[in-house]
From TrEMBL:
SUPFAM superfamilies reported for this sequence: DNase I-like (SSF56219)
Family: Belongs to the DNA repair enzymes AP/ExoA family.
EC number: 3.1.11.2
Keyword Metal-binding: yes
GO molecular function: double-stranded DNA 3'-5' DNA exonuclease activity
Keywords: Hydrolase, Magnesium, Metal-binding
Domain of life: Bacteria
Xref: Gene3D superfamilies: Endonuclease/exonuclease/phosphatase
Record flagged with keyword Hydrolase: yes
Species assigned in the record: Mesorhizobium shonense
Name of the protein: Exodeoxyribonuclease-3
Main enzyme class: hydrolase
Amino acid sequence: MVTIATFNVNGVNGRLPVLLKWLDETRYDIVCLQELKTSDERFPIDAIREVGYGAIWHGQKSYNGVAILARNTQPQERRRGLPGDPDDTHSRYIEAEVDGLVIGCIYLPNGNPAPGPKFDYKLAWFQRLIGYARTMLKEETVLCGDYNVVPTPIDAVAPARWLGDAVYFPQSRQAYADMLKMGWTDAVRQIHPDKGVYTYWNFSYRGGYDRSSGLRMDHLLVSPALSNRLQSAGVDVSVRGWEKPSDHAPAWIELI
């Protein structure tokens, strides 16, 4: 049995108490983090090791950043940065092997305002991901993270509210659908085919969060070699209500 989780932490140092509490309470075997918002040298590796996790990370000051954590072991880095554009300096992809599994941690561009250059970059990045993901289909692979894509209407509390947002644009949704057509399984949707499951909510000016803004855009995609091992999946929604939380909640899967 192995558990894998993904969490857009929205600032690993600013949200460190939330991250450490969550890691200590859940004890997932493998954890992918996005939006670290810190340089490599300021990544809180000592605190993470104290709660029992080895880690690799790909930081960027103030923006982006991804990391892979493994409980009681050290992830073996395979790649940092998505291939296909040597001029892309954003820290959005890191890949490791952990106990025979290949783990890709993804922070896909948001793309707003759209249309425009940021949306063009998002779509180009997505196409690079699709091309690279094709080479990983035959391995026991999990590609997880913040895809910044709301795949279908069931993945939003109020879909019409997001029609002008890049996360819900038809091109974004089609790129995600192309990943699934290639052979990847959307693990959370596989386990919960008809349920409104959400991983993101807007911050509320009144405190707490706006439950009507719920979206599912943090995903765990598993390769065909792992699809028959998928046992359960869910979202740790309660974390969104903790003190000084991220605007995302962690999503997770369990493989037998």
